[in-house]
Amino acid sequence: MPPENKARGQSPLTPRIFFLRWAINSLGVLAATQIVPGIDCPTFPGLLTAALLLGLLNAFLRPVLLVLSLPLLIVSLGLFLWIINASLLYLVGSLVKSFHVAGFPSALGGAAVISLVSLIGGSIFGLNRRPTLTFRASSTTHPRKPQQQGPGGPVIDV
């Protein structure tokens, strides 16, 4: 692991992690097709294609959308992120022929299910780790001042 990734608490994207994320995303899309009315995928290859395309859109298009919609994200306290996820799912439904999303309300439900499954699956496999703030002692030493004696005992000067 490169030192800059280790310092930020991130792991590099290995083929194992890529396929694990794809499998979790595919499981989320499968759960959405079973739970949410209006999301339908009759073929397994179509499901895998939809999950792969959704992952690619989340990797490349979603950051651009996040930057462009930053004021809305701040005002809505992050709830607009759900709209972005639903929009990407709806876009996948229009691009993959064997994956159907009936309308935007179905995309909203599907985005919620996929996000929940991805959150749980990522937590189980340790993929949701974020960098944490850590403190370390300074390497420079400061000379201590001798304690002064006052009328009531030693005085600690800080």
In the sheet with the most strands, the strands line up as: 1-2
Structural class: mainly alpha
The count of domains is 1
How many β strands by DSSP? 4
Our estimate of the beta-strand percent is 5-15%
Number of helices: 6
* C-alpha-based Rg, rounded: 25 Å
The major β-sheet equals:
2 strands, antiparallel
Low-confidence stretches: 1-8
Summed over residues and divided by their number, the pLDDT gives a mean of 85
Termini separation (Å)?
42 Å
Helix content: 55-70%
Morphology: elongated
List SSEs in N-to-C order. Answer: HHEHHHEHEE
Structure characteristics:
158 residues; mainly alpha; two-stranded antiparallel sheet; 6 helices; 60% helix; elongated; disordered N terminus
What does this 3D model show about the protein?
The protein is mostly helical and 158 residues long. It has one domain. The protein is 60% helix and 6% strand. It is built from 6 helices and 4 strands. The longest helix has 25 residues, at 44-68. It is elongated, with a radius of gyration of 25 Å. The protein starts with a helix and ends with a strand.
